Amino acid sequence: MTERGRKALLLAPAGIWLLVMLALPLLVVFVFSFGERGAAGGYVPAFTLEQYANLPARWTAFKNTLILAPLGTIAALVIAYPLAYFLAVRCSPKWRTSLLILVIVPFWTSILIRSYAWIFILGGRGLPALLESIGIDDIRLINTPFAVLVGIVYGYLPLMVFPIFVSLDKLDKRLLEASADLGSTPWRTFRQVTLPLSVPGIATGCMLVFILLMGEFLIPAILGGGKVFFVGNALVDLFLQSRNWAYGSAVAMTLVVVMLVTVSIYMKFISRLGGQREDVSLM
Amino acid sequence: MSVTMQTIAELRGVTKTFGNVVAAKDLNLSIGKGEFLSFLGPSGCGKTTALRMLAGFEKPTEGQVLLDGEVVNDLDAHHRPVNMVFQHYALFPHLSVFDNIAYGLRQQRPRVDKQTIATKVEQALETVRLGGFGPRRIWEMSGGQQQRVALARAIVNEPKLLLLDEPMAALDRKLRKEMQFELQNLQRQLGITFVLVTHDQEEALSMSDRICVMEGGSIVQVGSPRELYDMPRSRYVAGFVGTSNFFDATVTDSAADQITVRLASGQKVHGTPEIPIDAGQEVCVSIRPEQITLTRALPTAEIALPVTIQNRIFLGEHTEYLARNEALGDFHVLVPRQAELNEGTFNAGEQAFVSWGEGALLILEK
């Protein structure tokens, strides 16, 4: 077999998968987005821009997604970084594995069940009751943007911790000694050596969490109580409840475009942050 | 180190233990200003621990580390006027060559102005013959160049002590030789005190003013390369500094300045040991391969032993012979080119005599 033939064979399974599971459905959605809703729902072929003209009706869903997805990513980063730093740099190797497993453990249970647990914690008999007992009254947590934020940070934290942990774990600890040797205080060493060298991990973690959050629908549905909904919820509603496939397709296409634009801006920013470094390659 | 030399750093009764492991045991050493000192020994002998205590990465368990007359046991590495060239250089991969070298200057408070930093970095680059390489990325540099960057990054801060942790271990033989000369020149040119850690005797011998030989966490002998080579105190030092032939012997007579020992072959030889030795003690005698003369005719020397030539290795300017004596065993003999031309080449199986001049034989602690 020729070298090219071997390469083609290696790429074939993934290529076919992408074609059937991604490219074709995307094409279908693209075509549907110019069609019309049938009388009994579903799709009737047509060529109209009416669905796109109707997008502002779902503006709130886009707004919520575009605020809470970046906010959730940043919140997850702020919580995950110190944890990953502790695990990779400070923690004794004896404890490291057990603690890493603890980070993964939540993944063993369905996100649905874990989110339901948060309904109780944030609901009237949970935290608010606790706050009331110390004199802080009338705090409503459940079914607010805050509840959704807590839910997504909780759900996506491990996805942020791991890439950062890996990049910090790979970090040559002798560089930290070299920095100290050259007169740098521990805090400056962190800023000038540790942080820049963990940029690849931060970038990967943020990307992973952000992209997944843009399509999230379960957590807003459960913890937002229908008051805080994402584009994902709009899609569920349009495809499964009101069966307006054409309009749903237009919303979905718009989400894809928005996502591509935000991600490419983000990539530009990150590659500038990473300088012309060889080790920052994101995708 | 001459008596008048000013002391820049000192170890006073320094011991370092890691758990149950004693890495360094009661080290006493003073390092003179402007000298080139090497810690020499195999891995695990405590030389790196000694260096790391000077750098401030390890705190001594007992004893004191002094820099410029002050006890610095509790002074963190980033406060010590000491810089290190790390074994694998530990250059910052996210910074350019310029920024790597400027790193130390930029940590100084009050801040050093940009212009001064630029000038100093350029100078340092020139010193290590890397002028114009400032904007390069680290991964674009070869191993030898990275080593120079590491050197420049340290010397640019004009440290009181420059510590070098096996700096040439990652270089190939030819480059290593070149770097040895360069390091030595650099040290004279800058007048900075260099403290080198190495397991390579050749490296230590060729560059150092003084060598501190270590074994099992302790200092076994300190002296100039010549002193260590000519007057090793123990078999360990003689074996680590240069190569030698060692034979067991028993002391038969011990006088104030001369003792007599009996070789296994029955001959008695005289010598002056570096350390006090009593009659009856089991000792070890050492003869350097290049101090042995190989002849066909019985020589007139005090002691000449008959040998059979076993093997011959041509080394260019020398030929090395392996010659066996029935009673003592194998002798390594190094015959210079000229002597070989006079005496002719010996072949395996040939009978010959080994002999040596007065003072060639050293009596050592076993």
From TrEMBL, chain A:
Pfam families: BPD_transp_1
GO biological process, one term: transmembrane transport
Domain of life, per lineage: Bacteria
Cellular component terms per the entry's GO annotation: plasma membrane
Subcellular location: Cell membrane
Residue span, ABC transmembrane type-1 domain: 62-268
Alphabetical list of PANTHER family matching this protein: INNER MEMBRANE ABC TRANSPORTER PERMEASE PROTEIN YDCU-RELATED (PTHR42929:SF1), INNER MEMBRANE ABC TRANSPORTER PERMEASE PROTEIN YDCU-RELATED-RELATED (PTHR42929)
Protein's name according to its UniProt entry: Spermidine/putrescine transport system permease protein PotB
Gene: potB_1
UniProtKB/TrEMBL annotation, chain B:
InterPro entries linked: AAA+_ATPase, ABC_SmlMolc_Importer, ABC_transporter-like_ATP-bd, ABC_transporter-like_CS, Mo/tungstate-bd_C_term_dom, P-loop_NTPase, PotA-like, Transp-assoc_OB_typ2
Enzyme Commission numbers on file: 7.6.2.11
Origin: domain of life: Bacteria
GO biological process, one term: putrescine transport
One GO CC annotation: ATP-binding cassette (ABC) transporter complex
Segments forming domain ABC transporter: 9-241
Keyword match Translocase: yes
Keywords per UniProt: ATP-binding, Cell membrane, Hydrolase, Membrane, Nucleotide-binding, Translocase, Transport
GO MF term list: ABC-type polyamine transporter activity; ATP binding; ATP hydrolysis activity
Leading EC class: translocase
Cited PROSITE patterns: ABC_TRANSPORTER_1 (PS00211), ABC_TRANSPORTER_2 (PS50893)
Substrates-to-products reaction catalysed: ATP + H2O + polyamine-[polyamine-binding protein]Side 1 = ADP + phosphate + polyamineSide 2 + [polyamine-binding protein]Side 1
Described function: Part of the ABC transporter complex PotABCD involved in spermidine/putrescine import. Responsible for energy coupling to the transport system.
Family that this chain belongs to: Belongs to the ABC transporter superfamily. Spermidine/putrescine importer (TC 3.A.1.11.1) family.
Subunit structure: The complex is composed of two ATP-binding proteins (PotA), two transmembrane proteins (PotB and PotC) and a solute-binding protein (PotD).
The protein's name: Spermidine/putrescine import ATP-binding protein PotA
Lineage summary: Bacteria, Pseudomonadati, Pseudomonadota, Alphaproteobacteria, Rhodobacterales
